[in-house]
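Today's session is about reading a structure prediction critically. Students often jump straight to the picture, but the first step is always the sequence itself: look for stretches that repeat, for charged clusters, for runs of hydrophobic residues. Only then move on to the predicted structure, which in these notes is written as discrete structure tokens rather than atom positions. Here is the chain we will use throughout the hour.
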Amino acid sequence: MTKYDIYGIGAALVDTEVEVSDAFLANASIDKGVMTLVDEARQTELLGALSAETGSMLRKCGGSVCNSVVGASSLGAQTFFSGKVADDTDGQLYIDDLKEAGVDFHSAGQEPGITGKCLVMVTDDAERTMSTFLGAGEDLSAREIDQAALVNSEWFYVEGYLVTDEARTAATKAAVELAKANGVKVAISLSDPFVVSVFGDALRQVIGDGVDLIFCNKDEAMAFTGTETLDAAAESLKRYTKTFAITDGAKGAVTFDGNSLNQSEGVKAEAIDTNGAGDMFAGAFLYAITSGRSYGWAADLANDCAARVVAQFGPRLEAQEFDLIKTKFDI
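Below is the predicted structure for this chain, in token form.
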């Protein structure tokens, strides 16, 4: 059986990314810069309204952890992803997209329903705003977890978005406990300030007695720890995790490898679209540490990859970009 570097689990969403105006967000009563969960009717309403927008549009398999494992796979990691899709055309698009990216997917068998969708709306200031209909992903359970593949992995990577429902939280917590019991290291992303603010207790349930690595940005770190500065948040995070990586936009990232803090400088980029930057950072970082690299080297690679994502429209890099990255970092 394949030995996986990274086993990821998260919401399986077909991402539709579109350029919109601030006026569109205001007229549609959408809170800018955050992720909002919506029902199918609201998603359909927004899709209809978006038909009047004339900006660029992309459709790809997505979800935070999915984007991360695709990025890690593109750099050379052996990866696996678990998520729930339905037996519709979007579900097949999702599976085909993963295969093309070299990511293995747990074939539990799709059930009737609607595959989840995420509208990613990008404004002129490069800010991304997300409207998410979980669809089939709302019923993600232990059925979607390949236990044999999980225990045969070095890292288990979990997204915080999964804790927005009690049943998904329970399934995620059980998978994390399985990983810990079998010596698989656990990484978790805090995902979004909305998730941290509303579902912080559920995140702590999943973390339990601690994880090996937490990914978050500065705002998520402070919200999760109830602190007001990056330094205080970094110190407080040590109660929950052995190591961490905190991103801070153009300023780069602060990492803790279990012994010392490291500041990795940001990479200059003309921001076009911030969607996927954090996902790419996590994917590149996990690739690096599973390759035996230091946390400082991992952060430098991850910052470079994230800057390239920010400088283009869409959360994925093309093969030629990864070729340039591999040459630059001697991968």
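Discussion point for the tutorial: The radius of gyration is 18 Å.
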